[in-house]
């Protein structure tokens, strides 16, 4: 077949769309926003980067294997380096996740080797002017400031904001740095990303992670996406979704207030009102229970307390669901029937589900849907929870969180004892690093710190209401964009009020420029992940090793070097790096990976030694794009990236676990079952699995998690070696550093974490079953009495408001529902991607999507400037994008923009030559209060606003 | 001898713009801000029936640009790739009139948008200058064809919607997909 032009065939051209497409819209947007002018700007007196065009074509090429740093799909690519310059990017067709494919961000990755807009050297703000600083002075001044604040206000007055962009080793060492400084005031963007997932899902069946893999979606017969838009946020995931659609005729159901680019490929789109996920899921379950479509055997054997859910679901008959969610009975029925008829089906969710003040309950509701359908622990099923940043899974696993140590050990004395043991340190020394005085009855060492979402409340809140000695007075913003946090006006006030602000980042970021300070801001240029090496965990728990592509540009330093230098300055480096070798004054990164392996028993991040990770990355072409398994080659039989749990020591050669809770496999081959994490009984009922177990298990029923005593009772104690016995005595599978308990359990076919049911009720949470609660800022006042929010409460260190906000009616002045989300061209706070000209060119204006009806009511035409005011009074000036993509009464904004506030440009605040190509209002200036009571997730998906013509 | 063609599978295109930035990445040396050799066009945006297609020069067998060019600056390679010579191009824009796909691009620099030399997709095959010479890189961008590689846009496509290569191979890949999907979901519906 030859493609030839037919004489009279008209060129492809549909009828003009109603509205206007985003691309057309952007075409009209001002190109002069800074493009041409900015593109040629080069800071004066800067050291110049070497440009690709200056390298001769035939210079020898070195090929490096690296991993995209945008989202958590983990796409691999080949970076070509000539004379030390990143001159080429070639597709890795043999990479098992992406088969060479990339979205706009991945395809523009090489721009990282240019870094025109990057910070070039350390700087500090002196009387309103940026002044160059040597690294030595910078570390000394920052360290001195830390020590003086410690003296006056204690260790908790220094805040450690970390990053999902760190390597695993970086995440781990940052958490360790905070621990050895003596605070739990450490967190990162997972707090405002999937924290509610981690809490909700882990409390349902054991681990708070994606249960299957991107590739496994190819095996699904139905794909249910709620609050997820992979076509923009995880484009390469669509490769697998569309293959399932093509090959298996998988049905695609999208639940989203917008008709997203993902919905464009769906069989059914249900546009729920923002913040009504639980009624929608209960609406589906109503039909499932009514028609007997639930998997009764699965529920009986593997699910605890589905009865409580049945009782709650009865309150949500079709009429009520339609009234709350705005989705018709026919569509809800159809969604339920498609899922029931096309098993196994997978459920995918992202920020649309998690970023709510009821986020943890949303995620539990999604899990319960899968439990009812019996879709868990099977290929093609599961909850495929897509993480947002390239290493947010790793950062979460490694405890870069305000309420955890690495491996989700928590902050109990036992958890500290375990990690102190891993670090080879004296517990008394570690304990003494902390403030010893309890505040509001809470002990600083064992009480969660202040969350990423609310560090500004830690600065601004009255001291007496905080469960710590003093306010936060100094903060590190290390690879985190503060414009991703709601209530930007408070964020700005907090930045103004602190003694010292330290930004460690390749870019100045908003923390460096949105304040009104004249002094006391430090900008320390960090290297990107392409200028260092280390391991990175993708959303599917697979770990890959990024090779260093180029040397750090300008005067940038790697995260690990900056951390180490700070530790030296603070006088804790000896303890901090006790088990880690140094070479040329730098830490040996593989030793850090090994220390991670030494302590991470809970999730089985123990078998992925640096050697094994590198072996996989170097041989990624031997792993199947369908099954992720290597049919041959040096890693034969293993799963790509050794997804955790990768049980036991590296020598045990566990192949990794692609699908969690999969009983059809032996644990030694990656099998599993739901985890026994919540004891063995509740109110006299057993919560262990009922007559079901993973393949080859010698205990053919439910069983609790393994301890030394349990091995003795089972008569398996003597399977341990003498050394293992010495270490394992009195320990459990999570704390036995010899790995003997894990080894012996697996030898008998048992899962070290036990075999229990998944639970539909969580008795330690504010809501035992997921309960619908109207958003704090709801447009439906008529539903508030029936579905009220929580009473105000103290969460860890901070007072948290609920009822006192919802009691006020904002819906008159602010009648439009407001939600936010991603664009494919940008990522996170956007400071990096808006500084990439290849991306910035495609999205030059901040905008708000509004329905033609709402626009007409306000006399607003497409492309006009409007003032959007959030329900707390934050005002932003943006362009109107009038489109049927959102329903009447609903508006949407992307969250990647920053650099303009209340209509005023912040460009003059940037150091010379670092203003991104594109700046715009942050949607979070208009976004409002609202926090999940379990995790302090912020509410960015359901608020209110009013829009007027500017 | 190959006949090089592009094909964009509308059932797979998700408008992620990977092809657009891939082109920028690969042909950076020849492209300035505002020039996009490739772009993604969406119809029915934001409503049922929304579909996207990635468009650039289609390297027509009977290329209208070539037929109308008064300066005769176009030529076709043995592989059926339509290229042009920027040294002889007079920037009249007649090719833009003729092209059914809007492929020809013009620099946007200058106060009144003075037109300058036309630029368009080269199928990553450079131009009339010596392969991989500085002149070729500055005027036309990369030359992957000379290295035995295919255009960057298609090679990096996130969902394998955009295919490039010998028409026979491209069509056999697409034919296989259509066989799985059935006629109803073949391309546009």
UniProtKB/TrEMBL annotation, chain B:
Span of domain 4Fe-4S ferredoxin-type: 4-34, 49-79, 80-109
Annotated Pfam families: Fer4_11 (PF13247)
Coiled-coil regions listed in the entry: none
Keywords of this entry: 4Fe-4S, Iron, Iron-sulfur, Metal-binding
Origin superkingdom: Bacteria
4Fe-4S among keywords: yes
InterPro entries named in the record: 4Fe4S_Fe-S-bd (IPR017896), 4Fe4S_Fe_S_CS (IPR017900), ET_IronSulfur_Cluster-Binding (IPR050954)
Gene3D superfamilies: 3.30.70.20
PANTHER family per UniProt: PROTEIN NRFC, PROTEIN NRFC HOMOLOG
Protein name in the entry: Formate dehydrogenase
